[in-house]
Known about the structure:
Elements: H1 6-10, H2 15-18, H3 34-46, E1 52-56, H4 71-82, E2 89-94, H5 99-110, E3 115-119, H6 124-132, E4 136-139, H7 143-150, E5 155-159, H8 163-168, H9 175-180, E6 183-187, H10 191-200
Parallel strand pairs: 1-2, 1-4, 2-3, 4-5, 5-6
Helix pairs in contact: 3-6, 4-5, 4-10
Amino acid sequence: YFTFLNNALEQGMKLKDCFPKQSTTYHNDMNTSQESKNKAKEFLDSMKGSPKIGFFASSYQHRGEFAFWNAGEWSMFLGSIASIYSNTALIAIGANYDDRTEDVYNILKNNNANVIPAIGMTDIGATLEIIKGLDFFFSFPSGLGILSDVVDTPCQMWYWRNKLTEKFLNSYADPVNIESGRHTNLFYCSVSESISFFLNHGVKYVNG
Length: 208
């Protein structure tokens, strides 16, 4: 059967408190198929460089308060992060309708970044295996960013601010990862503020 916990999490309840009589496991292998693992390996092996950093910028369906950065701002941010290291390899992750992610990829590629696309090229199993194999993941607020904590990949994710997200923020993730900064959630902020946040929190998890 399926259990839907969003309503409880959006009211500020922590994941571990939803079923207090049962232990909470924050990380698991997700039981993906060998086919998905093989597909992900093809993409990871084609990322020539280190560290391996993934990003998901979603689509233009998100507008207004939900939109966050435009493609130019995303590419500026990722270009700045990539420049910290001598040979960063980037990968764009998303579904075939994630057109903003596609635009970010194209801008980075045109700027001679070391980036490859995986947009619309993988099922969810292979996508998770790619995320599992990354050194770091930057994500628009989504299930992909949430699942990065499940597979224990360091992640920085941004949320729009409202009454629900203020309570939901950090409710689902491993408290150890939240406390250490391995998994971080920010409210929407500027490119420069986000770079500074990464330098103060996320960078320690990336070996360039």
